[in-house]
Design goal:
48% of the residues lie in helices and 16% in strands. By secondary structure, it is α/β, with parallel strands linked by helices. The longest helix has 36 residues.
Length: 244
C-alpha cells in the first residue's frame, strides 16, 4: 500500500485485501478470473475502486515441451502456481496439463515436492521466480529459466537454461539419461576387462605387455564410448526433432 494525494491505495490479491467481498467488486473479480486472468484488486481508503486483469502469455514451445516431457517420463507435468485456480486451469488446458495446484505459497510448493519424494519419485522442478526457489532447492533437480529468472532462483537451481527456451528441458532430460546409460556401459566394460585380465593371470601366466595392452585398451574403449555424447545425434531435441 502507499499514500497518493492523501488517500491510502492498496493493490493486491482480492482474497487478501477483501476476503469477504460480495458486492460488484466480487462479480468483477469472478468475471476476470473466468476469462483465465489473474485478478488484482485496487482499494482506495479501504474502498474497492477497480479490478485489474493480468494474463500470462504462453511461450510458443510450451505445449510441445509438455508433450515431450510426458513422452519421456510417462507422466504429465504438474502445474504449481500461486495464481488463482480458474486462471491456472485455463492456462494449463492450453498446454495439455490436467493436474493443477493453484493458490500455493512457496511452502506449499515445497510440501508438494516433499510428498512426491516420499512416494519414491524423482522430482524435477522448473521455475523462474523467487517463490519457486524453495521448491527448486527441495527437488532432486531444479532448473531455472535464465533470461527471466530471479537471482534467487538462479542461485538455487541445479541447472540454468541460458537461452530461456522451454524446449531445452526435454533435451536436457534425454541427454542426462543418455549420459547415465553411457556411465553404466563404461563401468561394465571396464569391469569385464579387469576381470578377464585378473582371471587370466591367476589361472595362467599373463604376459606383462599383454596385460598393459589390455588395461590401456579398455581405457581407450571406455573413452571412445563416452565421446559418443559429442555426436550431433546425441543432442537431438525431442520437441523439434532435430539437434538442439
Amino acid at each position: 500500500s502507499s499514500t497518493i494525494g492523501g488517500h491510502t491505495v492498496q493493490v493486491g490479491s482480492p482474497g487478501r485485501l477483501l476476503p469477504a467481498a460480495t458486492g460488484p467488486e466480487a462479480a468483477a473479480v469472478a468475471e476476470v478470473e473466468d476469462a483465465g486472468q489473474t485478478a488484482v484488486l485496487v482499494l482506495r481508503d479501504d474502498t474497492p475502486v477497480g479490478v485489474i486483469g493480468i494474463a500470462d502469455r504462453l511461450r510458443p514451445d510450451a505445449a510441445a515441451t509438455v508433450a515431450a516431457l510426458t513422452e519421456l517420463t510417462g507422466r504429465t507435468p504438474v502445474l504449481l502456481t500461486g495464481d488463482n485456480e480458474r486462471a491456472a486451469r485455463h492456462l494449463a488446458a492450453e498446454v495439455g496439463i490436467t493436474d493443477v495446484r493453484a493458490g500455493l505459497l512457496p511452502e506449499d510448493k515445497v510440501a508438494a515436492v516433499r510428498q512426491w519424494e516420499s512416494e519414491r519419485r524423482k522430482v524435477l522442478v522448473v521455475g523462474d521466480g523467487v517463490n519457486d526457489a524453495p521448491a527448486l532447492a527441495a527437488a532432486h533437480t531444479g532448473i531455472a529459466m535464465g533470461k527471466a529468472g530471479s537471482d534467487l532462483a538462479l542461485e538455487t537451481a541445479d541447472a540454468v537454461v541460458v537461452r530461456d527456451e522451454l524446449a531445452t528441458i526435454p533435451t536436457v532430460v534425454a541427454l542426462s539419461r543418455a549420459a547415465r546409460c553411457l556411465v553404466v556401459q563404461n563401468l561394465f566394460l571396464a569391469g569385464v576387462f579387469i576381470t578377464v585380465l585378473v582371471a587370466w593371470d591367476l589361472i595362467a601366466t599373463l604376459p606383462l605387455p599383454l596385460g598393459v595392452a589390455g588395461h590401456e585398451g579398455s581405457t581407450v574403449i571406455v573413452g571412445l564410448n563416452g565421446l559418443r555424447l559429442l555426436r550431433e545425434a546425441a543432442w537431438k531435441n525431442p520437441v523439434r526433432g532435430g539437434a538442439a
